[in-house]
């Protein structure tokens, strides 16, 4: 698998002097002659960097820190976390993917890796650039309405006299936005529901609870406290049922629609990382994932543990890339 | 009343008090370093709190929060380099005082203002928490847009006498804020295909370059000329001094608190708005504002720390964070299986009322540490020869802008901003409007476009809250215009 990106050079030209310097170093490290890195005897012999593409304090950051703390023993080395944020994760993804694929630089994966390219924000093709290592969490997207809304069930969205309803999402191109658009397409709601892209999930929830929008889509775990307190009413889950929602909340599958949408968390490496290292990391991170204290952490933060190994996770990111590409084209967000 | 006793009991624990002192001390250090904000300090220590009781962990983080938001003003006053964006409004008056040899007094005004703002803020928070929840929820995109417009009129106050240049500076800030991903449709804007520009230009490296490094450049130029630093004078406060400060401090606290309650805006603009109002309230006697007026300084200082208490209102009552730092705080509370929201008040009064009382204690500790520290910091800066001070400042600026998100691009942005700042100072352009424009531009744009999506037309302008804010904006702009016309006529 090649790690050389032809249009890296184009960007270098457009870039500035500092970016030029940095990009030259990157190109030198992953130049065209270097098809893949040789597997190293006795890997890992030094500490491993993990790039978290989101700010400290969020679920990606918190779970990564907890996972690698458990993994120090299982993997036999220490981990160094770097938060490189910006561009909906694209800055951090790009940084990890441009590093030497020797197993010493990993990144925290989020579903945005399979989405951002469709918007022309960053050139990441999961199939070409990304080597999945492990997925440790997955949570479905769900749609909810304010407690005082006349909408009682999912069907009400389709039959309501109001034929222009606004749905708060955490931003255009986010998983909660595309999960919503995909649902609207299969349920024939694309003309009735309007995306209102807020700046993050917290703002979207605030807007829905304040009655500024008719509905909100967000991760089921993020909706949970407000559904439990009675401020919001969940109408449908876009994936497997979750046990903390009332029993009557259906999944899209139960409603007869073929669409699911989940936010995932995992660890990946740049493509070209030797198979031996990928397998080693996948196994020892899985051991850390199953530890008691990691499971406890995931439970208290309300995140589901759903495991995929290296091959499954890699394939999953590729499939999601194709699925969301179709949604983006159908709703006409990009030409 | 019994809830308050439960809270007091939770705080009256030697370990909690020790953690508060630790938190405030850590906060002062991280806040004083440019680029390392309260958020970073809180996030780094968050995992440590998982092992503590909820109230212990929360108090450690709140100590850092209060300390860091205060301490951003120490470098702003001493070397014109605000440690956090909320301190940018303190640069003009604070540093002018320092140059007149009044660094000690300026630092004491700062710590007094910050403490008072914090305490008034916490009291308002404790009394009004349930009402504030519905206020914060009612604040929709239309109101955000109008609030941003109102705050933009502050540009007039910080550029009095050179209005045109102030407006140019503010427009430049708005233009810089346009770069990056369009938040509504998600396409890259003015990025020239560069992925670094796609994530937008962060205003913190711009602020560091514009204020701290541009100032260092100027100092190099003046190296052989006259020293701007007057001999430092020790300062001891009197009753008249306190009387002069009180009205501006109270006004600043209330304004800072209200703006802090609105999720997502926080203290960064609260301090500018408070400064604007304090200046207007001073009427005829405002000639000295911007040139070392302690009332201007205290209003900005009290507003930024009152904002920390304000930001806790939506955090505790709704579970919706008021700013990035309180988002981390929610993490610290939820990890213990507690959920911020109305249920927290009934279910865990020890935590909620403990936070109220503990946050008061944070500010009392801050008053002690800050008051006795102020003389020390002023003396330290005075002892360092300028030939070492300013190069050190540049090194810190590079480190600070890099550490923000481990990105070399931010360092470059900081250096370009430094050159821009130098040119602007030489040309007589005020710097603050540029930062104000960069902060408010995205809030205004997103608010306007979301309001159009939600309503489909311009009818939102006539909703009560947006309309009130619009009238205030018109009045504020009108006053500024009249003032400017009068001063040019006379």
UniProtKB/TrEMBL annotation, chain B:
Keyword Acetylation: no
Keywords of the record: Membrane, Transmembrane, Transmembrane helix
Pfam families: TctA
Residue ranges of every copy of the DUF112 domain listed in the record: 17-436
Listed transmembrane segments: 15-48, 60-79, 109-129, 135-157, 164-181, 201-220, 241-262, 351-372, 384-402, 432-454, 460-481
Matching InterPro entries: DUF112_TM
Name of the protein in its database record: C4-dicarboxylate ABC transporter permease
């Amino acid at each position: 698998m090649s790690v050389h990106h032809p249009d890296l050079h184009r960007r270098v030209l457009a870039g500035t002097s500092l970016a030029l310097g940095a990009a030259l170093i990157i190109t030198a490290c992953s130049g065209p002659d270097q098809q893949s890195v040789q597997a190293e005897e006795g890997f890992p012999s030094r500490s491993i960097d993990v790039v978290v593409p989101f700010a400290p304090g969020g679920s990606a950051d918190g779970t990564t820190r907890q996972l690698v703390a458990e993994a120090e023993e299982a993997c036999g080395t220490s981990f160094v976390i770097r938060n490189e944020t910006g561009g909906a994760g694209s800055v951090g993804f790009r940084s990890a993917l441009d590093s030497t694929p020797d197993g010493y630089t990993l990144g925290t994966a989020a579903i945005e890796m399979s989405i951002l390219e469709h918007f022309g924000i960053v050139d990441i093709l999961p199939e070409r650039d990304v080597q999945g290592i492990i997925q440790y969490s997955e949570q479905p997207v769900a749609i909810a309405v304010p407690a005082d809304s006349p909408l009682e069930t999912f069907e009400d969205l389709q039959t309501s006299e109001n034929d222009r309803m606004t749905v708060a999402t955490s931003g255009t191109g986010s998983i909660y936005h595309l999960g919503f658009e995909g649902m609207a397409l299969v349920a024939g709601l694309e003309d009735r529901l309007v995306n209102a892209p807020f700046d993050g999930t917290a703002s979207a929830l605030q807007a829905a609870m304040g009655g500024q929008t008719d509905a909100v889509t967000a991760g089921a775990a993020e909706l949970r406290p407000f559904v439990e307190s009675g401020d919001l009413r969940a109408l449908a889950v876009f994936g497997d049922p979750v046990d903390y929602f009332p029993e009557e909340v259906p999944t899209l599958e139960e409603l007869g629609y073929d669409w699911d949408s989940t936010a995932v968390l995992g660890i990946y490496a740049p493509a070209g990382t030797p198979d031996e290292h990928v397998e080693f990391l996948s196994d020892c991170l899985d051991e850390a994932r199953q530890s008691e204290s990691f499971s406890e952490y995931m439970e208290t933060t309300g995140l589901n543990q759903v495991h995929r190994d290296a091959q499954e996770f890699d394939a999953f990111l590729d499939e999601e890339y194709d699925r969301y590409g179709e949604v983006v084209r159908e709703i006409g967000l990009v030409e | 009343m019994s809830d308050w006793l439960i809270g007091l009991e939770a705080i009256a624990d030697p370990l909690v008090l020790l953690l508060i002192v630790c938190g405030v001390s850590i906060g002062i250090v991280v806040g004083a370093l440019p680029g390392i904000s309260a958020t970073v300090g809180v996030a780094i220590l968050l995992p440590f709190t998982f092992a503590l009781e909820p109230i212990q962990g929360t108090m450690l983080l709140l100590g850092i929060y209060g300390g860091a938001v205060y301490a951003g003003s120490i470098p702003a006053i001493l070397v014109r380099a605000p440690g956090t964006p909320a301190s940018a409004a303190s640069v003009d008056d604070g540093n002018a005082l320092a140059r007149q040899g009044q660094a000690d007094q300026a630092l004491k005004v700062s710590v007094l203002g910050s403490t008072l703002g914090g305490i008034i803020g916490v009291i308002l928070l404790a009394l009004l928490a349930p009402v504030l929840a519905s206020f914060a929820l009612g604040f929709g995109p239309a109101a955000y847009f109008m609030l941003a417009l109102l705050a933009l009129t502050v540009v007039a106050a910080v550029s009095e006498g050179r209005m045109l240049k102030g407006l140019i500076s503010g427009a430049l800030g708005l233009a810089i804020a346009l770069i990056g991903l369009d938040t509504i449709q998600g396409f890259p804007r003015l990025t020239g295909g560069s992925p670094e520009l796609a994530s937008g230009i962060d205003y913190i490296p711009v602020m560091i370059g514009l204020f701290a490094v541009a100032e260092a450049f100027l100092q190099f130029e003046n190296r052989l000329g006259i020293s701007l630093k007057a001999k430092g004078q020790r300062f001891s406060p009197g009753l008249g001094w306190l009387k002069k400060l009180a009205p501006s401090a109270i006004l600043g606290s209330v304004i800072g608190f209200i703006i802090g309650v609105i999720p997502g805006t926080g203290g960064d603009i609260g301090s500018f708005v408070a400064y604007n109002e304090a200046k207007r309230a001073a009427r005829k006697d405002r000639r000295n504002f911007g040139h070392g007026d302690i009332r201007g300084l205290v209003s900005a200082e009290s507003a930024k720390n009152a904002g920390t208490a304000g930001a806790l209102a939506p955090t505790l009552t709704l579970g919706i964070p008021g700013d990035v730092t309180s988002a981390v705080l929610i993490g610290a509370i939820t990890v213990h299986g507690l959920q911020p929201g109305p249920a927290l008040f009934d279910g865990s009064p020890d935590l909620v009322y403990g936070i109220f009382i503990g946050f008061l204690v944070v500010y009392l500790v801050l008053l002690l540490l800050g008051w006795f520290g102020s003389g020390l910091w002023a003396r330290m800066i005075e002892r360092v020869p300028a030939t070492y001070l300013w190069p050190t400042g540049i090194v810190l600026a590079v480190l600070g802008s890099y550490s923000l998100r481990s990105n070399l691009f931010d360092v470059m942005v900081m250096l370009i901003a430094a050159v821009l700042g130098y040119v602007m100072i030489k040309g007589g352009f005020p710097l603050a409007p540029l930062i104000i424009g960069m902060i408010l531009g995205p809030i205004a744009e997103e608010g306007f476009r979301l309001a159009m999506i939600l309503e489909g037309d311009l009818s939102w302008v006539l909703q009560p809250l947006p309309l009130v804010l619009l009238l205030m904006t018109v009045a504020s702009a009108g006053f500024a215009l009249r003032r400017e016309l009068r001063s040019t006529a006379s």
